[in-house]
Design goal:
By secondary structure, this protein is of the alpha+beta class. The protein has helices at 17-20, 66-69, 121-128, 131-139, 151-155, 164-204, and strands spanning 13-16, 21-25, 42-45, 62-64, 82-85, 93-95, 104-105, 109-114, 158-161. It has two domains: 13-162, Alpha-Beta Complex (Adenine-n6-DNA-methyltransferase TaqI, Chain A, domain 2), CATH 3.90.220; 163-206.
Length: 206
Amino acid sequence: MAHDKPWHASGTTWLLLGDCCQVTAGPSGSLLDNLNDGPGGVPVIAPPDLTEHFTVDIRRIRRVSDARAQRLARYALQAGDILLVRQGTLGRLALVRAEHTGWFYSSSCLRIRPDRRRVLPEYLAAYLTHPPVQRKLVAQAQSGTVPSLNSAILNEFSVEVPPLARQQNVIDALADIDEQIEVQRTMLDRLIALRPSVFDQLTREE
């Protein structure tokens, strides 16, 4: 594996993802047989559960039995992990939150576990979803009937890593923007819901 590129004067460096993270492919399909939709067992996150807002949608989550879960211990998630789709919608990802601790992930995902001494999870998630980086990442996919990413490709993928303090500044700035986006999205949803009733009211006025 190649080593770190030289430090820039700004303190930013380029690292291979494998030098600052642990990348683990999901369990084989045989370990996830007989997933159920009921309330019992441990949730398993699959690509359809990852939203365009980089979160996990739990409404249709499926589960593996508690007995089978014991064999999947090495695939347990913890807060700060990043789940990346490796087949299908390449590049879609989600940042694992505290409420997902102990859950598992499907064979169609890769788990990226950042070394927080070098890169903060929120910064890395933002970096990997930056459009130019997304295009570069997807371009690395193995060609085939279904293009795919794997652990080897991810481990050799170069990432730009500023000092931790600057990473935190990026996280804070993007969080402020995301908050405003959510406010505007909520307002838009309300206006869309209001439009039909306004039409009805105005067309029925005498």
